[in-house]
Design a protein that fits this description.
three-stranded antiparallel β-sheet, transmembrane, 34% strand, Immunoglobulin-like, alpha+beta, DUF3426 domain-containing protein, 190 residues, transmembrane helix, membrane
Length: 190
């Protein structure tokens, strides 16, 4: 009598085990498919995001340099030239002919969306300079212009010396950018 009940009991458990195994297999396959769909959506979303142009809040906006602002100010106003506050705001004129970028390279950073520029600035003046404003022009492979990015560097460069600025982020850059050419726009005496 015992033998007969054991056979019935094990058969019932065997069928239940098959059902559980089938349910686990189906759940793992559907979880795997869901995970693949999620991964595909993330990859496609990142690809689309990289191709979008930068928004106004994220792009490096053109900043009017202080030297240009002083040149644009009306010089016939005696009250402005007599006040000490106006004299303190006027930057000392720097000879940009004696400041030059001797070598430069660039590469992408930030998942390929940011431009990192490395350049060496040579100061042949008899005084130190600071607040260096550079402009980097980016072009496509065919040579057509894409965008300009400006950056002001607060680090001083001593007189009759050179300084290397390594991997300076100049802002977001188009994915089609192939070459960059940076030039010095403005500087102040230190």
């Amino acid at each position: 009598m015992n033998a007969r009940l054991d056979r019935i009991g094990w058969g019932r458990f065997a069928r239940t085990g098959e059902r559980v195994a089938r349910a686990v297999t189906i759940a793992s396959v559907s979880f795997g498919r869901s995970l693949l769909w999620l991964l595909a959506a993330i990859i496609v979303g990142c690809g689309v995001w990289m191709l979008l142009p930068p928004s106004k809040g994220n792009s490096a906006e053109q900043v009017k340099s202080e030297v240009a602002a002083v040149e644009a100010a009306p010089s016939g106003d005696p009250a402005a030239s007599a006040s000490p506050a106006a004299e303190a705001q006027v930057p000392a004129v720097v000879d940009l002919g004696r400041l030059r970028i001797s070598s430069q390279t660039w590469r992408r950073g930030g998942l390929g969306s940011k431009a990192l520029v490395t350049f060496t600035l040579r100061n042949d003046n008899d005084y130190a300079v600071k607040d260096l404003e550079i402009v980097c022009a980016f072009v496509r492979r065919d040579g057509s212009h894409l965008t300009d990015r400006r950056r002001v560097l607060a680090d001083p460069v001593s007189m009759k010396s050179r300084k290397t600025f390594a991997r300076i982020s100049v802002g977001f850059v188009n994915v089609n950018a192939d070459q960059a050419k940076c030039s010095l726009v403005a500087a102040r005496r230190a």
